[in-house]
Amino acid sequence: MSSRGTPAAAGGGGNSAARQVIDILHEISTLLNTKLDRTTLSLCVSLIENGVNPEALAAVIKELRKEGERLQEEDDDDDDDDDDDDDDDDDE
To answer: What is the value of pTM for the model shown?
Structure first.
């Protein structure tokens, strides 16, 4: 009985029911252009089922995305600076 409290433990067909719920949520997520994959949606559902505030979770996801974009821009800027340095070396 390692699957305590999960839909699979509650009646045999719970696994397919849980998968169907995630599939439906993923379809809605895609329509809303949330860019969340099935795994991320599943983790979010699990967190919410375990008491995490949905609004707080959404805020954390948004903040992580902003930080990821900022880091990506920094990385892109660093790559551009490296390319400029390479061009300067060719002129010598």
So the answer is: 0.64
Q: Is 44 helix (H, G, I), strand (E, B) or coil?
A: helix
Query: Are residues 48 and 86 located together in one domain of the fold?
Result: no
Based on the fold, state whether residues 45 and 4 are members of the same structural domain: yes
Of 55, 65, 49, the C-alpha closest to 7 is 49
User: Can you give the residue range of the structural domain that contains 11?
Assistant: 1-52
Q: How many other CB atoms are found less than 10 A from the CB of residue 83? A: 9
- Specify whether 2 is located in the same domain as 35: yes
pLDDT per position as a tens digit, 35-76: 999 999 999 999 999 999 999 999 999 999 999 999 999 988
Residues 33 and 13 in one domain: yes
Rounded CA-CA distance 70/41 in Å is: 23
Answer yes or no: are the C-beta atoms of 1 and 9 closer than 8 Å.
yes
Q: What are phi and psi for residue 4, nearest 5 degrees?
A: -70, 130
